[in-house]
Design a protein that fits this description.
Blueprint: H1 2-17, H2 25-36, E1 45-48, E2 51-54, E3 62-68, H3 73-77, H4 79-89, E4 95-101, H5 105-115, E5 120-123, H6 126-132, E6 140-144, E7 150-155, H7 161-179
């Protein structure tokens, strides 16, 4: 028992003298985002109204991808502005907008009607949604270039409408235009 107490005291005393490592969640998230940039989009195969889509079918297009789910309040808060982004760019021949969620198809259909979602939403397993989004949480937005490489990645969201509008039209939109 005495040995345990002395060991514990020395361990606590030694570690207390060393500076604590700076653990900042924002810097960890930014590191994950930066690690994704320049890498190939992971492979996937999904179906939308009976038509097969794969990561390879998107080559040659600039693709905006959003990962979301209905349990994520910031995800839901940004849906209307993301619709505006889609409406602004949908006629560009080299642009594709897709999203992934792990919500069941019936929920996706209900949310699609409620929010007027016109872009492609692919319900996939929670494992696939995590894998494709690099397990960064939700929401995640990526811009993929014509060669299938991730050129932009942003994790997280806001509940504030002005902040959402700013992020989508002052950050995402110019990034997409730069890739087109």
């Amino acid at each position: 028992m005495i040995f345990f107490l002395i060991t514990t005291f020395l361990t606590v005393h030694i570690f207390a003298q060393q500076p604590a490592a700076e653990m900042n969640i924002d810097s960890l998230i930014r590191d994950q985002e930066m690690q994704a940039i320049g890498t190939q989009l992971d492979s996937f195969t999904v179906y939308y109204h009976g038509k097969k889509f794969t990561n390879k079918s998107l080559v040659g297009k600039t693709v905006f991808i959003n990962f979301w789910n209905t349990t994520c309040a910031p995800c839901m808060a940004e849906l209307r502005e993301l619709n505006h982004l889609y409406d602004t760019l949908k006629k560009h021949p080299n642009f594709e907008y897709i999203s992934f969620t792990f919500d069941p198809p019936k929920v996706v259909e209900r949310i699609g009607k409620k929010y007027g979602i016109a872009y492609k939403v692919f319900p996939v397993s929670i494992a696939d949604c995590g894998r494709l989004s690099r397990n960064m949480g939700y929401p995640v937005s990526m811009i993929v270039d014509t060669g299938g490489r991730i050129q932009f990645c942003k994790t997280g969201g806001s509940m504030d409408k002005e902040e959402i509008r700013h992020r989508i039209f002052k950050i995402y939109y110019p990034q997409i235009l730069g890739e087109l």
